[in-house]
Amino acid sequence: MNTPASATVSATQNLPAPTRERPPADVVGPWAWARNNLFATWWSTAITLVLIYAILRASLGFVEWAVVNAIWTVPQGASGPDTSSCRAIKGIGACWAVIGEKYRFILFGRFPFDEQWRPAICVALFIGLYIVSAMRRFWRKELVLIWVVVLAAIGVLMWGGVFGMPYVGQDVWGGLPITLILSTFGLAFAFPIAVLVALGRRSTKLPAVKLLCVLYVELIRGVPLISLLFMASVMFPLFMPDGVNFDKLLRAQVAFILFAAAYLAEVVRAGLQALPKGQMEAGDALGLSYWQKTGMIILPQALRLVIPPLVNTFIAFFKDTSLVLIIGIFDVLTTGKIAVSEPTWQGFSTEVYLFLAVIYFAFCFAMSRYSSGLEREFSRSRGR
Amino acid sequence: MSQTAHLASAAAMDAEPAILLDKVNKWYGAMHVLRDVSMSVAQKERVVVCGPSGSGKSTMIRCINRLESHQQGSIVVDGTELTDDLRALDTIRREVGMVFQSFNLFPHLTILENCTLAPIWVRKMPKAEAEELAMDYLKRVKIPEQAKKYPGQLSGGQQQRVAIARALCMKPRIMLFDEPTSALDPEMIKEVLDTMIGLAETGMTMVCVTHEMGFARQVADRVVFMDRGEIVEQGPPIGLFENPQTDRLKLFLSQILRGH
To answer: Domains plus CATH for chain A?
Structure first.
């Protein structure tokens, strides 16, 4: 064939290979980027300048309030701390003294003051548990054992009554340990339930199981978490025979697990649906059993696919634990609110809520950073 | 082995065919996809199944290891009839290896893990032994150096050769190929066909759905032509291709040859 097109192809093939290997300096680097994206036209330059001004104003204002004009401690008067200096600068500077005075109450609630080292260790244990679980080289069977031991240790520390630690009833537990207990136990139990429900909902051979899973998800998802918590705390005891009574925290925990599992099940199902049918067929053709296929081929891939929405749900539920306030359990948000309802500290809720926001942000941001790290690692190991 | 000698040995083993389909019927809803398909494959016989798309050839081969279930008739593989009995199904799937058009390697496992998964979990083979076996087969398909990589890092032809090695690691007595080269770029088809020819030379019983007529001529003992869910014509490749009896096969052959 001798069409013009093929002639051009052979002509270009005879050319020497292009010699320039790097792009010229004026199209890469921060300056080139800024010129292209921020100052490309006079209109874009104007917007950039206005926004820079606005950002500077806002952040300088915040720094002035939070640092420059802030009061860090207040003198102790005869009837407790004297907050008159704080009230004098209200609106101009922050009064961080409220955190210094009340942080023990905010973090640990009404737990006996002298025993608060116990919930403090529990919080440390929880964080240690998260870090160990996050490291892939600990992803072995022993990890389950570590969880059981740590959670048991946390139970012993919180309740006490052994090893010379006085007994502390659940009614006075509060603050950060409550938030961590509810979310850790909640998600740790909800996740396996969710996987089973998702698998059940996709079952073709067991219609009864499928129906049950559909009903479970739709019923639980169809009501607000608050109503489930109310049911757990008010209605559930009515159905129990006299004398049988589960603890309020446990009931809230169960309601929380059921609720989270319904949502997570749908996330997991999305991952199951995204897998090509050929993966299951290849497993079938090799003679693998249903659970072998599911455990070694389907779930590892499906769960990797849904890491972003999974972590999204985890983060949402971590924050939703604060709803237990409506049935009289004091999580860290509630203890913060109570701390500023005291007459001495009334009016300093901004500082306390900022403090709480930092705590929540630390946990949630850690989760989201971890998930994106995990995604990167998985995509690297697949060579894409 | 000469053609006549091979046919003689196949006839001798005719007593127990490797695969026997008897009046198999299947419907997808109202669509009749397999019509009274009867076919027998002798031990060590190599059968190529061809036909236009939608002729039911893939459905038939997928019925042989019950990735699809048939609704009428009987299928007997290696003396075991395919029913809803899970134990029979397990036996058959251990004996029958399958290679898919789209490879279906497990992307989250390395090449070696892809090959050792089933021997370890289905055959209960010790890990070291399974790995040794897998390396043997990876050498046979000429890619032992890729063992530590993931499927996504390999070319299509390499992936399909891994898929063949993965199936062979289960030491099957029968191999099914469902259009193994249809998803490959032209320059990769040859490496996969060469692997399959090598396998055919070892005496493996093979049923292969393919449009590669050169492959059929070279290795097939018999070619089966299917159209609209039924077997229209079958016979040794030379006779079938040189002297087609039906208009449908003539039309199909002319289309295939024009395409090549």
So the answer is: 76-111+168-378 (1.10.3720.10)
